[in-house]
Amino acid sequence: MSKNETRSANRKSDIISAAIEVFAETGYFRATTAQVAERAKISQPYIFRFFSTKEALLLTALEVSWTRIIDSFRKVVESASPEQLETDLIRAYEEILNTYQNEVLLQMQAQTIREDSIREAMRGGFREVRRMVLDAFRAAGIPNAEERTMLFLARGMLCNISAALLMPELMET
Amino acid sequence: MSKNETRSANRKSDIISAAIEVFAETGYFRATTAQVAERAKISQPYIFRFFSTKEALLLTALEVSWTRIIDSFRKVVESASPEQLETDLIRAYEEILNTYQNEVLLQMQAQTIREDSIREAMRGGFREVRRMVLDAFRAAGIPNAEERTMLFLARGMLCNISAALLMPELMET
DNA sequence: AAGATTAGTGATTCATCAATCAGTCAACCT
DNA sequence: AGGTTGACTGATTGATGAATCACTAATCTT
Hints:
By secondary structure, chain A is mainly alpha-helical. Chain A contains 8 helices and no strands.
């Protein structure tokens, strides 16, 4: 029983990982469930045992990607010194961008998808990240915490684009 | 003859305008050429008299959208006082975001499309905008012109997301 | 070992779409 | 009037993709 649950959970996370890759590489709408299945080494119909629709799979993939960022930022916030806080957050995000580029690319795609459920997931992710950063900046006594939070997020978004388009000069200072 | 050219040019720009709307609303890959045709009030096959492929139409739409921004910024740069320069550029971009949201949404989509021709169009647009802003900041004697340019672009990108997701709080200071 | 539950797939369905083709219709020329 | 050109469309094609169905194989239970 627990063995089955484990195997099943592995299959599910295999599918999610495959979906993140394929969606990021090909574009969510152009990507096919057959491509995801091939990457996950299962048959195409089997995806629908775990996700009722392609969109449900996208939603789960987005949740994974937001959890990645939020967990990483939480660790920084809990341990960083006030002086190092912003630098450490930036470093943490750069680390994510290096290691999980596909998750970020998927989020970038989802920013322009108008389905309510997708939008809600994106709003929730941004809201939580912003809240965490803002609270941490305030707790660290950073002046103009609101503006600094906005600029931190803004920098991150430009960083995404710089990475997606392979234009490092966009981040030059 | 010139009458025909005019009619033909109108048709072409009708198609481009329709494509910007439909692609922005529905997503480029999900949008169909039939939807674009309906919006432009022509038949679906007629699109292919003007654009050899759907992708060629996207490329032209992207060029239009970049030209919009570049022309607008150029006017600001040519006329604004050094003290007002950044403020005026921000205002100009907000104006574009209000009036031509769909063009911006289309650019956001194109940021994650991996086709070479699309990427090249996006790189060219970003490069030109960055160059113009950087040169103007330098000419205005703004210190740390490189960093200020980066932050200006970053703010703009967050502004896009804030508008796309209907999250004004992302831009709060 | 037999029965029952779970893991997994092949084949199919029905819908959809970019692109092509073959043709109509109207305007203009002479 | 008749012929030529350019604007424009209906019908079609060939491919593709999400989702369903009807199965088989494997594992677990007792």
